[in-house]
Design a protein that fits this description.
45% of the residues lie in helices and 21% in strands. It has twelve helices and eleven strands. The strands form three sheets. Strands 3, 4, 5, 6, 9, 10 and 11 form a seven-stranded mixed sheet that branches. A two-stranded antiparallel ribbon has the order 1-2. The chain has a two-stranded parallel ribbon with strand order 7-8. α1 packs across α3, α2 crosses α3 (36-50) and α6 packs across α12. It starts with 9 loop residues before the first helix and ends in an 8-residue tail after the last helix.
């Protein structure tokens, strides 16, 4: 079915609707970025095409005729349909773009994901990537509920009910402010000493917290926290202020250790403070394609491989 002869284009219909909405031809012209004479010529051409007088032009301005108001009503329906068509086509384009949804714990997101994504982009530049950052427990839930295709977490154990693969170990260090009594001690801190000292802790659900708690709990019941804080940045700031010692990833503590804003406290040989980085996925949907490629980049430490 072809369009009837004389069917106007969408731009001039949009201009006519703008005249109705703005109340004047001049305002409509400004809205469309054209001069008033040019707008008047386009409306006149539309009137000739439709064989209808749409505007009453007078010395004080222009006003829609009854026919003009009826045409505006029809034009609005046509323009709404055109916008819906454009939105539908845009949605089809968006659906065709490959998309990888990632969830990662805060430490990994800040200190590892950028390097992994840089390598990943070499092989999959067309893939749209979204990243959600939270603590380990929430990342596990995002993957478990299929709100993320793949996740990256840290902690002492594989998450229950999910597939996982160890990517490597992350060293944890005991840090204090330079003025803290532990800053210049010669004797290493023992596990019992660490366990019985109020520390700065991350919030429940953090992989760092779970790891450190399990290590200390194997020695004795850990002391009540000096504070529970929702981010590594808050813990670093509190440790720098001398509130209490903290156990942090070396990745996070490195800048402050290098600048001497924090001091690393030596630990006894029997104290092993490490945690594992893992990639996780739903068992019924093991990583493939872009997800598997990102997992390989993570396992290789950010080295890209050809597809």
């Amino acid at each position: 079915m072809t369009l009837p002869p004389g069917t106007p284009d969408l731009e001039v219909l949009d201009l006519l609707v703008s005249v109705a909405e703005s109340g004047s031809l001049g305002a409509a012209a400004r809205r469309h970025g054209i001069s008033q004479p040019a707008a008047s010529m386009r409306i006149s051409a539309l009137e000739r095409r439709l064989r209808l007088r749409l505007l009453d032009r007078g010395p004080t301005g222009s006003a829609l005729t009854d026919a003009g108001r009826s045409v505006v009503e029809h034009a609005q329906a046509v323009l709404d349909a055109a916008r819906a068509f454009g939105a539908g086509v845009a949605a089809l384009h968006a659906a065709q773009v490959p998309h990888l949804r990632i969830a990662a714990s805060k430490t990994i997101a800040d200190h590892r994901i950028p390097q992994w994504l840089d390598a990943f982009r070499e092989s999959y530049p067309e893939v749209a990537v979204s990243l959600e950052v939270d603590n380990t427990r929430h990342v596990e839930e995002l993957v478990r509920n299929a709100r993320a295709d793949i996740g990256f977490v840290e902690g002492p154990h594989p998450p229950p009910g999910l597939g996982s693969r160890v990517l490597g170990a992350d060293d944890l260090v005991v840090v204090v402010a330079p003025g803290h009594r532990w800053a210049h001690r010669r004797r290493p801190v023992t596990l019992r000493e660490l366990a019985t000292t109020p520390l700065l802790w991350r919030e429940p659900g953090s992989g760092t917290r779970d790891t450190v708690w399990e290590i200390l709990d194997a020695e004795c019941q850990p002391a009540r926290p000096a504070a529970e804080l929702g981010s590594a940045a808050a813990i670093v700031a509190s440790a720098r202020a001398g509130v209490a010692p903290a156990v942090l990833s070396r990745l996070i503590a490195a800048p402050d250790l290098d600048s001497a804003a924090l001091v690393e406290v030596p630990t006894a040989d029997s104290v092993v403070l490490t945690r594992e980085f893992r990639v996780i996925w739903r068992r019924q949907a093991p990583p493939s394609g872009p997800a598997e490629a990102l997992a390989r980049c993570a396992a290789d430490g950010g080295v890209a491989r050809n597809r």
